[in-house]
Amino acid sequence: MGQGTDDRSYEGPAGGWGSVRSLVRKSSDEHAVSAAVHELPRQNKPGGFMCVSCAWAKPVPPRPAEFCENGAKATFAELTGRRVERAFFEKHTVSELLGWADYDLEHEGRLTEPMRYDPASDRYVPVEWSEAFAAIGAQLKSLDPESVVFYASGRASLETSYMYQLFARLYGSNNLPDSSNMCHESTSVALPESIGVPIGTVRLDDFAASDGIFFFGQNVGTNSPRMLHQLQEARERGVPIVTFNPLRERGLEAFVNPQSPLQMLTNRPTTISSQYHQVRAGGDIAALMGMCKAVIAADDAAAAGGRRILDTAFIEEHTHGYDDFAAMVRDADWAEIERESGLARSALEEAAATYMACDRVIGIYGMGLTQHRLGVDNVQMFVNLLLLRGNIGRPGAGICPVRGHSNVQGQRTVGISEKPEMVPLDKMAEQFGFEPPRKKGLNTVEACEGIVAGEVRAFVGLGGNFVRAIPDREVMEQAWRGLDLTVQIATKLNRSHLVVGKSAFLLPCLGRIERDEQATGPQTVSTEDSTGVMHGSIGRRPPASPHLLSEPAIVAGIAKATLPPNPRLDWDAWVGDYALVRDAIATSYPSIFHDFNRRIAQPEGFPRPNAARERTWTTKTGKANFILPQSLCASFDMSGDPDVLRLITLRSNDQFNTTIYGYRDRFRGVIGTRMVVLMNKADMARLGLREDQQVTMETVADDDRVRRMSGFAVRPYNIPPGCIGAYYPECNALIPLAQHARVSKVPAAKSVPVKVTATLAATATATATATAGMAAE
Question: Contact, 581 vs 571, CB < 8 A?
């Protein structure tokens, strides 16, 4: 395919000594060495705290060190000895801080007291909690509830999330977008149509029973490194792992287990992927179509001899739509499949042969499938492949979407959703004696559209870095300043706190690792992992400041200041005893959370029911559905113009979501900067670009708006021709709000059509000056 290699690329494995050195550097930098020694042994353990980073499953019994590199960095960041006190805000204006890099803002440390924005001085100034709650409540009471957005980032506990969504609905709003809208909403749309459940069907014990694992668009080494333990164990049993991903990611190539003395001594890695196919960005439907075509062709040939490749008994009893799907697959043209996928027919047939040789296959995917124009179709096409051989509802098999943030799946489970049909509103109406709003609320993209249009007047953020994470950043930041009210609940400073509405509040909360002491004593919270298992979590560290409140206390404080008293709801009692909140959750969701307080104390936690695991299909047809894709191309790039490249936004080894831990993406050999464009050498030659040359990227879109960014240095990289990679969230300004997945409205961040040109010297100098604050770690 004419792919080049990057001479600076990291040749070592994931894990190993590189991970150890990175953790030592980060813990020292955060002044958190002593605290980390005490807290890391409790991370992801029964009786300990659940990681504030990714949501990967927790094994029972746990390993001695049940944390990964990025999970430990998230812990160090929360345990940091650095503090952002009132003197910091006295010294720096908000306008000045807007010029700081993401890393520098968060590196200042933990927020210590509630603040309000003072427009006259352009500074945050201290405010008493009672005064903040009263002012926020007064403004919310003056607004139309449908003009207020209640956003949740994914880190809040089940208890906080339930209180938050209940507050929003008692207020009269279903505007409850969350970070799922930006990442896995394509999953939440696709899977119910295909198999009747909105989450994956795989549990952790399925990995031990699987004899084949297929990856699409998920970078395990950066986004869920603890899964590498299950993958390593599978490879040691001889299980093939077949990967489809545009970039060759180190975590999917080689892994040295830091908990294995022999591997650490020899530095001899486990090879993770037995096959690695560098699919073109947006070409996953075509790749899956090619595999399905090979499987069905093999079955057609075998059927003549009485032997079948397909699980015909499963298809006949449990599925709907196979004949139409098979007809589409047989008619698919290999030349078009090769062109759209960027892969040779022989490569896809090799992957299909491996699939056919396995009896129990797990299909794993991430945002490389969901964040495209046809992200829903991507997911459903992956399900189609698994259905062909009965790989749903079988031990050791199933579909496994890897959710990102800790509890991002759980908050949806307890009601944070803009879709009223996904929430037991009738039950809540009876439970709390009110009439919930029934109108569909705003998802993330719709909330952004409402802010630009002036229809959204207030934003309450439960964690996260919304303004930095969303598309069309420059347009959004300008419109954001027209909001009447912005409220941000957070632990550390980020850019979203600096793009303020006319009235703005910054409310610092306890972290999950810290002791949450309330009226009835230390409190436990709970989370849901990526496999649908609920876990208890209890913090023990002293709070970063005596002025911090817990997230439940902040939500209750705003609710009490906004809502009239409700004889069926005692917010103060809930804050004093989170077990009462869990009792309320169990009443609202009895099939999932019955006997919640007892079961959450179990070391292994407890799983939510999953009908598809039992081959019970709660779909419109009553069966699992083969669903036909709309096109073989999932991207917005359909022009055929060779000068249009597909931009894949990436996370580095030294970040999680919008949180930047440093400037050392060692897996890609990018050190000291994030302003790079990774490009195929053949594309560089074709466009007349040289290594480290400054370039400008401009989005190709159907509207009249110009989206252009300069200041990027070109780096040759092993990436398919026609594709480039650059870092998120820096490149979000290039993603149009209108370029989102059909139906799910997930921003299409994994194949953004752009043109790349050499930057004029004057522009390059100006951009370099503007980004000079991005100091290397």
Answer: no
Q: Given this model, what pLDDT does residue 436 score? A: 98
Assigned token pair, 427: 């039950």
**Do residue 337 and residue 454 come from a single domain?**
no
| Same domain? 327 vs 359 | yes
Judge contact between 83 and 548, C-beta under 8 A.
Answer: no
**Are residues 427 and 490 part of one domain?**
yes
DSSP state of 747: B
**Does residue 27 lie in a domain region?**
no
Q: Are residues 574 and 506 in the same domain?
A: yes
pLDDT at 3: 34
Closest to 724 (Cα-Cα) out of 249, 152, 247: 247
> Does the pTM exceed 0.70?
yes
Do 446 and 470 form a contact (C-beta atoms < 8 A)? no
Q: 721-733, pLDDT tens digit by residue?
A: 999 999 999 999 9
pLDDT of residue 26: 67
| Mean of per-residue pLDDT scores for the chain | 93
Is 630 part of a structural domain of the chain?
A: no
Are 104 and 493 in contact by the 8 Å Cβ rule? The answer is no
Report the alpha-carbon distance of residue 438 to residue 137 in Å, rounded.
Answer: 23
Cα separation of the two ends of the chain: 36
| β partners of residue 662 | none
Q: What is the CATH number of the domain that holds 758?
A: 2.40.40.20
| Interval 72-92: pLDDT, tens | 888 888 999 999 999 999 999
Stretches where the chain sits below pLDDT 70 are: 1-11, 26, 761-777
The residue segments making up the domain with residue 366 are 185-402
* 507 domain-assigned: yes
Residue 234 falls inside a structural domain: yes
Q: Which long-range contacts (CB under 8 A, 24 or more apart) does 125-134 make?
A: 125/86, 125/89, 126/86, 127/505, 129/549, 129/557, 132/505, 132/507, 133/557, 133/558, 133/560, 133/561, 134/561
Check whether residue 330 and residue 437 sit in a common domain. Answer: no
Q: HSE on the CB side for 542, CA within 13 Å? A: 4
Q: Helix or strand or coil: residue 73?
A: helix
DSSP, residue by residue, 214-267: EEES--HHHH-TTHHHHHHHHHHTT--EEEE-SS--GGGTEEE-TT-HHHHHH-
pLDDT in tens, 270-328: 899 999 999 999 999 999 999 999 999 999 999 888 789 999 999 999 999 999 999 99
Tens of pLDDT, residue by residue over 402-432, are 987 788 999 999 999 999 999 999 999 999 9
Q: What is the pLDDT of residue 674?
A: 96
**Tokens representing 491?**
């632990």
User: Residue 62 and residue 58: Cα distance in Å, rounded?
Assistant: 7
Residue 633 dihedral angles phi and psi, to the nearest 5°: -105, 120
Q: Which two tokens stand for residue 740?
A: 């989102």
Report pLDDT for 177.
96
Other Cβ atoms closer than 10 A to 621: 12
Signed CA dihedral, 212, 216, 222, 224: sign only: negative
Q: What is the dihedral of CA 731, 737, 739, 743, to 10 degrees?
A: 130
Q: Which amino acid is at 372?
A: H
pLDDT of residue 65: 86
pLDDT at 14: 74
